């Protein structure tokens, strides 16, 4: 009997000690949860055909997907809540006086699309998963080559997409003061000799290197970044080729009282998937089976005006251009894209907003074919 009592008391004491240790641990950690719920209603009109049902380009603007060469105009209406996202973060005070931060963020923009017949179900996807400690960051987040702070406020998922660096990927980054340096996950997109598709290659032997410096002042900030990368392709048979590439990105945000101007310019070789959501590939295969990098450039400028405490408007223009060697890529590749958009957003409170946005986009191919898109979008968003 005494043995049973001793065992019970020991178990109870162990449970109390464990609970106390967990409570002490939680006292050193702060947890936060946030995100938003967003509804989008999108009406699109295309001059040269239409995008098929389920194409991601109907849910948000992708420059390289504007239809070109169709015989008739096309229209489409879509409504979804796929941009809805949530994030979870922790901040732990460590015994050595430093802090350990972790973040996980998901949304529902994964492809392929869900079934719209009955349930409109969409799978969650990983956006961000990071560990930050003593100036170091490990995990997946926005590329160091992208200045997230200058992205314009748009109802579209990205907005000024043509000239925007837009990539999330795994990396190891170190930051101190205004300087950041990162080794990031490499991936090469390639145009086959003569055109006719895209090869996605994961044959790189070294990571992409990004160096960035940002100067902040009361008037805003200016930032410059360099991307140094290896483009690689190995078909497992006779082709095994690499090419080096370098690109530059300059961005700025200028505060004009309560208003602001945001801008970005990007240029260089082999940017590929980094610019305009892969409007052009990073390289092309020549007749000898060797990679040649593709030069490209693009940028945007956006102006945001606050009419009062509840109403605001953003006007933006964005462009992209590729310097294709048409004897290698063929004439059916994208030569340039551009888009302009204007919106009006009403916020009865800081958590809730309603908006309407009009955008016009154009895509030109090397064969001089072109296609236009006009889009009207309504959104309702609750941020928490």
TrEMBL record:
The keyword Signal applies. Coiled coil: none annotated. The keyword Signal applies. Keywords: Signal. Transmembrane segments: none annotated. Residues 1-23 form the signal peptide. It comes from the Bacteria. This is Porin. It comes from Lacimicrobium alkaliphilum.
